[in-house]
């Protein structure tokens, strides 16, 4: 009797299981030839093609195991919501040359309702590249690939993924609308150059929740055109902290609007919250509606820093003028150094002769001296304890610091920038 009864129940179970499967079609990469310790680029791309063509929602599965991945560039549009679920450990080639100058190792683009989930790891194996990275001083350095590029995604979720030891930035977000990162782990050693966590540009409604980001550079940084960005319950450190900018390097930059950071901890970072702009650009960059609340800073060198002289590697006015002067001064025929129209910041300048021929410095631009060097170099933290409010015509914030550690530390209760017009501040 018992066995007779169990047959229809078993049949019903099978029916239900296949019914659930029909709801979400599963495309397992091992069915497409993926094997541990081999390159799964083709298997993953082929599984993606089938999943993306499915008219019902689909799931591409990368099961546990260690795999190699040369590079990946998966694009929509897909016909239904699509999920890539990675439980495996995926390794990039160690030698950046094998990536043939791509700017991102793993790219997802032009997809609506995309989910990348699982407990898997994408390991950029960046150590070899970090030693070769000369992209600070050398403008013509080779392109170094980032771990992830998410471009033009909408209504999408990146969940539970670990990004490890990227060769360059870990995650770049461009042109996305409604993209949420949850339970992310992003890590690289404090000494690894340019391994920024998540960089966002030209995107709206990007959320970063419940994540840990420790790298050798910025934890989260906003480029121009970032709007409605929400960061909550994120721990940063080591690294350079949360950064708005750098802005003002390129023409046609779009404004940054709406940046809310709540309940975050910065631990052992160079900076806490930083706004950085390049000096000497004639354009206006604007940042509005920034709100920082319940931010704990432990052992942070500069908890709040507004740096309007952000100028790494001397790429700015002073250096340009000094270099032009040196060349002109060496010329055996008469020469002219021209500063074209525009507004430039100049800290100090000391140009000396003798020169080999007459020299004419023609200034058509507007050159500004720093009005208050302390203000331009950021806030002097030692004078900034216990809820002082700093004001100028264009910006305001109030901050509350309590020493937590032996080194600089504190907490921001609420800090709000309602409107910050960065050029106007420089010139005022
Ligand atoms: C944002 O995307 C998520 C994930 O697809 C979706 O559940 C949510 O409804 C979207 N929100 C809006 C405002 O469209
Ligand atoms: C905050 O994030 C951590 C992971 O970093 C998570 O374990 C914890 O549950 C989150 N807290 C809340 C209230 O979501
Ligand atoms: C706030 O952050 C702390 C420390 O990361 C975490 O334990 C807590 O769950 C967070 N609370 C919320 C509401 O996110």
UniProtKB/TrEMBL annotation:
The keyword Hydrolase applies. Its main location: secreted. It is found in: Secreted, Cell wall. Gene3D superfamilies: Single-stranded right-handed beta-helix, Pectin lyase-like. One of its GO terms (biological process) is carbohydrate metabolic process. GO terms for molecular function: polygalacturonase activity. Residues 1-22 form the signal peptide. Keywords: Cell wall, Cell wall biogenesis/degradation, Glycosidase, Hydrolase, Secreted, Signal. The keyword NADP does not apply. The active site is at 240. It comes from the Eukaryota. PROSITE patterns: POLYGALACTURONASE. Pfam families: Glyco_hydro_28 (PF00295). Belongs to the glycosyl hydrolase 28 family. This is Polygalacturonase. It comes from Lupinus luteus. The lineage of its organism: Eukaryota, Viridiplantae, Streptophyta, Embryophyta, Tracheophyta.
């Amino acid at each position: 009797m018992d066995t007779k009864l169990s047959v229809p129940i078993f049949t019903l179970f099978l029916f239900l299981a296949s019914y659930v499967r029909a709801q979400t079609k599963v495309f397992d990469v091992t069915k497409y030839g993926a094997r541990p310790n081999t390159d799964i680029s083709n298997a993953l791309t082929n599984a993606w093609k089938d999943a993306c063509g499915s008219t019902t929602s689909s799931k591409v599965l990368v099961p546990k195991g260690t795999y190699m991945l040369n590079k990946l560039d998966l694009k929509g549009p897909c016909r239904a919501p699509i999920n890539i679920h990675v439980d495996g450990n995926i390794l990039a080639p160690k030698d950046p040359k094998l990536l043939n100058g791509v700017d991102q190792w793993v790219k997802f683009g032009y997809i609506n309702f995309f989910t990348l989930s699982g407990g898997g790891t994408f390991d950029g194996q960046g150590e070899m590249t970090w030693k070769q990275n000369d992209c600070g001083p050398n403008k013509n350095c080779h392109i170094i690939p980032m771990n992830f590029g998410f471009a033009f995604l909408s209504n999408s979720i990146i969940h539970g993924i670990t990004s490890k030891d990227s060769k360059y930035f870990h995650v770049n977000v461009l042109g996305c609308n409604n993209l949420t990162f949850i339970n992310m782990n992003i890590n690289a050693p404090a000494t690894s150059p340019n391994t920024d966590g998540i960089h966002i540009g030209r995107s709206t409604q990007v959320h970063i929740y419940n994540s840990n980001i420790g790298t050798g550079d910025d934890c989260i940084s906003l480029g121009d055109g970032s709007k409605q960005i929400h960061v909550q319950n994120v721990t940063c450190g080591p690294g350079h902290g949360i950064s708005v900018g750098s802005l003002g390097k390129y023409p046609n930059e779009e404004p940054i609007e709406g940046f809310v950071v709540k309940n975050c901890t910065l631990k052992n970072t160079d900076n806490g919250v930083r706004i950085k702009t390049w000096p000497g650009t004639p354009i206006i960059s604007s940042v509005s509606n920034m709100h920082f609340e319940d931010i704990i800073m432990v052992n942070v060198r500069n908890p709040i820093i507004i740096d309007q002289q952000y100028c790494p590697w001397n790429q700015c006015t002073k250096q340009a003028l000094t270099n032009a002067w040196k060349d002109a001064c060496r010329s055996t025929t008469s020469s002219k150094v021209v500063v074209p129209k525009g507004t430039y910041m100049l800290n100090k300048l000391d140009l000396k002769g003798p020169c080999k021929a007459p020299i004419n410095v023609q200034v058509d631009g507007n050159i500004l001296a720093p009005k208050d060097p302390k203000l331009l170099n950021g806030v002097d933290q030692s004078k900034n304890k216990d809820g002082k409010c700093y004001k100028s015509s264009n910006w305001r914030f109030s901050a509350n610091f309590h020493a937590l550690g032996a080194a600089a530390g504190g907490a921001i209760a609420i800090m709000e920038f309602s409107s910050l017009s960065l050029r106007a501040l420089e010139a005022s």
